[in-house]
């Protein structure tokens, strides 16, 4: 029997039966410098409300010894240990070892290629703590945790509660941490290694930053910004939630071979890919700020108050994603962060919500395996946009008051959707039942068009719209200037909404001006060409973004060509003033040229993007972003020679131009060797592998596929980079065998846990060397895959299907 996934029914039964008093977890890391083993002793004190009943504890590590109230237990072969004949009060003790610390779930041992030093991290969402020690691995059985960690003497250990007592013992050191507040087991953490550490007092908090020693210089470079953002975020959230973060220490640990970031209470773990080896661009700095504030928001949404079951995952993730934009705009220098959201993440959400994996933000979740499949573009960016609409719908002051009431009422407990709706309804005075049903329990995206009925403009929904507040802008076009003559906010309650005060004779009427809601729009037939021509001349980053989003959505549904969409976005780049969107638009324009354009149009569109990059490169503040775009779109030896001259000694640009040169058939082996010698990045070998991946050479493709997809030697944070260089247009003959290799790999793509499964299922999917029957075959295989692989594969395959139709000039991507 394989490892079983906890079902909702089992969790509800166990949750009603037990109250967990505390966890005492002993972790022994002393074997890790030379071997794979992590040894743990988990002691759990808990009460049973029906003495004599049976239940089970989760433990998918190898069990060495287990006792319940002093009586030996026999583990099952399904990742569970049966617990028979429970007493009113019980003490469970389980000794376990986890040896799969390279590719397994829950705990990971990473070796720094720069110096051979070993680092270890744990990451448990949604239910991976059971792979490391015995626990009741469900979110509603919260309890204090006390960690005692024995580690090599040269190592530093971090955990949730900070301020440990450290003792020397037998050539090692023992780190004893104070009790945590009541936490779900997935919010706990142990990180360890010979870290470089920086600490600073900010706003009354003791803040810590950690990274591997080979990245000390990069951490020192970014420390001021990280401390500033952390202080700003803690102050903002403490104020708007009327609840300061209740622990003095707040640590952030940047770890090798980690995917994304994880909101462990008081000790956030990050991928150290966020420590950019080159000086970061504005977009990279903004992303860092958003992730930092997202994980911090989880201290309240997820840690202090935790969803009862995974159907309310959005209570964690959508709120954290919304809150990070709210905090960034109000408390940091990233005041255009919502424009960046619209230019990037929200477009992915629109696409996902109109595809085969669209689902309600709040939906029944049968088991935890299904829960892992909804960490997606519906839960995150759509959820954030829907919450922005909710704040607009009830008003920001009432929204803030409702949040404060929610946290005051439910701190250190578990909640459901109804608890949140009750708090917001009470404070706002609005009945939110219809809003909840329409926005949270119903999948799909509203679409609006306009009719001009005499002197009245009517907003028309395609079907029954959700209750929402949005704005419409009326613009007068004068040459290369678009002047807004009116901006009217309306509340939508039915299929047809008259918009008083909006001049019907306007040259352009922009639906969702201000981007207050999550809905797509189409211009009226007379306004289509005006929209394409005028998008670049609208007066704000948000209004330009709404126009660009409309054109992008038209491309994905076959209502605009790649040439139209690409040239529209390039035209916006020529006038854009917000650094929050320039890099996303450059990426979007290059994606359209590379992935969506027919072969006959690709060269011209690529040249248009390259020309935009050259114009931007004249601005010193945007030079780095522009040259990155130029490296992607260089078309021949002359472009590459010019780029080499401009790059000079800049290592990051050097790697990027070598990827493009290799793709274009140049022999760059000598330059790769020379750059490896100069590059101080401990992960520079991944950049060299990326160059190899781009080469139009059978042996190179075979080597890269082996290391990337079979051996999984590439850090999960770099899979997208290497895979993007591997799958290149114009290399179909070389790539065709790997399209089949992907299909062969589908049954095993889930191994390693949620984050690797999502990364490999998405980024290894071929955008070239396939046809529509291949898409159908992949989608058929997805039906038997693990839920997280199934949903990721279906979403990615639908996007690629739309690309194929666009390349063929076909209509109707939806």
UniProtKB/TrEMBL annotation:
Reactions that this protein is recorded to catalyse: Release of an N-terminal amino acid, Xaa-|-Yaa- from a peptide, amide or arylamide. Xaa is preferably Ala, but may be most amino acids including Pro (slow action). When a terminal hydrophobic residue is followed by a prolyl residue, the two may be released as an intact Xaa-Pro dipeptide
Aminopeptidase N-like N-terminal domain sequence ranges: 117-186
Domain (ERAP1-like C-terminal) ranges: 509-802
Organism, as annotated: Streptomyces mangrovisoli
Protein name (database record): Aminopeptidase N
InterPro entries (alphabetical): Aminopeptidase_N-like_N, Aminopeptidase_N-like_N_sf, ERAP1-like_C_dom, Pept_M1_aminopeptidase, Peptidase_M1, Peptidase_M1_aminopeptidases, Peptidase_M1_dom, Peptidase_M4/M1_CTD_sf
EC number(s) given by UniProt: 3.4.11.2
Enzyme's top EC category: hydrolase
């Amino acid at each position: 029997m394989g490892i079983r996934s906890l079902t909702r029914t089992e969790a509800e039964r166990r949750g009603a039966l037990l109250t967990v008093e505390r966890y005492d977890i002993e972790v022994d890391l002393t074997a890790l410098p030379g071997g794979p083993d992590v040894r743990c002793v988990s002691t759990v004190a808990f009460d049973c409300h029906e003495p004599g009943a049976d239940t089970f504890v989760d433990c998918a590590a190898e069990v060495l010894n287990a006792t319940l109230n002093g009586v030996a237990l026999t583990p099952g072969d399904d990742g569970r240990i049966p617990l028979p004949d429970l007493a009113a009060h019980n003490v469970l003790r389980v000794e376990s070892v986890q040896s799969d610390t390279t590719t397994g779930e829950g705990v990971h041992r990473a070796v720094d290629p720069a110096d051979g030093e070993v680092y270890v991290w744990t990451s448990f969402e949604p239910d991976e703590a059971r792979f490391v020690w015995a626990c009741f691995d469900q979110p509603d059985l919260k309890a204090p945790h006390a960690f005692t960690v024995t580690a090599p003497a040269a190592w530093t250990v971090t955990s949730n509660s900070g301020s440990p007592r450290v003792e020397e013992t037998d050539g090692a050191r023992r780190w004893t941490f104070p009790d945590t507040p009541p936490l779900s087991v997935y919010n706990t953490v142990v990180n360890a290694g010979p870290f470089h550490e920086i600490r600073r007092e900010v706003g009354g908090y003791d803040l810590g930053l950690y990274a591997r020693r080979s990245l000390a210089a990069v951490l020192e470079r970014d420390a001021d910004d990280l401390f500033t953002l952390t202080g700003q975020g803690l102050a903002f959230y403490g104020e708007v939630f009327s609840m300061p973060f209740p622990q003095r220490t707040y640590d952030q640990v940047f770890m090798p071979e980690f995917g994304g970031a994880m909101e462990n209470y008081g000790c956030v773990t990050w991928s150290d890919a966020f420590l950019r080896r080159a000086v970061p661009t504005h977009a990279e700095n903004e992303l860092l700020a958003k992730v930092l504030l997202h994980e911090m928001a989880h201290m309240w949404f997820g840690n202090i108050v935790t969803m009862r079951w995974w159907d309310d995952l959005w209570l964690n993730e959508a709120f954290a994603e919304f809150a990070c934009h709210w905090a960034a705009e109000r408390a940091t220098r990233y005041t255009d962060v919502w424009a960046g959201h619209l230019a990037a993440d929200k477009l992915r959400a629109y696409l996902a919500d109109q595809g085969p994996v669209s689902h309600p933000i709040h939906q029944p979740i049968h088991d935890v395996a299904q829960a892992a499949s909804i960490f997606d573009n519906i839960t995150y960016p759509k959820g954030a946009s829907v919450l922005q609409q909710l704040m607009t719908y009830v008003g920001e002051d009432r929204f803030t008051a409702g949040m404060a009431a929610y946290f005051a009422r439910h701190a250190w407990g578990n909640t459901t959707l109804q608890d949140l709706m009750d708090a917001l309804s009470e404070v706002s005075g609005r009945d939110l039942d219809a809003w909840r049903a329409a926005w949270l329990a119903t999948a799909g995206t509203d679409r609006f068009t306009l009719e001009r009925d005499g002197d009245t403009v009517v907003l028309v929904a395609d079907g029954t719209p959700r209750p929402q507040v949005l704005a419409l802008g009326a613009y007068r076009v004068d040459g290369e200037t678009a002047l807004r003559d009116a901006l009217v906010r309306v509340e939508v309650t039915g299929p047809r909404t008259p918009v008083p005060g909006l001049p019907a004779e306007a040259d352009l009427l922009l639906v969702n001006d201000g981007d207050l809601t999550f809905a797509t729009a189409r211009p009226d037939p007379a306004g289509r060409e005006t929209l394409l021509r005028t998008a670049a001349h609208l007066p704000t980053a948000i209004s330009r973004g709404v126009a660009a989003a409309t054109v992008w959505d038209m491309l994905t549904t076959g209502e605009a060509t790649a040439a139209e969409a690409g040239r529209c976005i390039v035209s916006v780049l020529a006038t854009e003033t917000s650094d929050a969107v320039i890099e996303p638009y450059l990426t979007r324009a290059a994606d359209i040229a590379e992935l969506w354009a027919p072969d006959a149009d690709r060269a011209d569109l690529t040249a248009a993007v390259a020309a935009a990059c050259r114009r931007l490169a004249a601005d010193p503040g945007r030079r780095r972003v522009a040259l990155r775009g130029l490296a992607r779109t260089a078309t021949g030896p002359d472009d590459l020679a010019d780029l080499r001259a401009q790059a000079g000694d800049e290592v990051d640009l050097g790697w990027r131009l070598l990827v493009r040169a290799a793709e274009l058939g140049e022999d760059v082996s000598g330059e790769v060797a020379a750059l490896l010698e100069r590059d101080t990045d401990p992960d520079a070998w991944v950049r060299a592998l990326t160059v190899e991946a781009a080469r139009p050479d059978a042996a190179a493709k075979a080597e890269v596929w082996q290391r990337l997809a079979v051996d999984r030697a590439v850090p999960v944070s770099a899979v997208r980079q290497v895979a993007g260089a591997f799958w290149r247009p114009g290399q179909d003959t070389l790539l065709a065998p790997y399209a089949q290799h992907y299909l062969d790999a589908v049954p095993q793509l889930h191994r390693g846990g949620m984050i690797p499964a999502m990364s490999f299922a998405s980024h290894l999917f071929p955008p070239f060397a396939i046809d529509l029957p291949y898409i159908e075959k992949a989608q058929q295989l997805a039906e038997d895959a693990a839920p997280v692989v199934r949903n990721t594969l279906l979403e990615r395959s639908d996007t690629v299907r739309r690309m194929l139709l666009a390349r063929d000039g076909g209509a109707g991507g939806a």
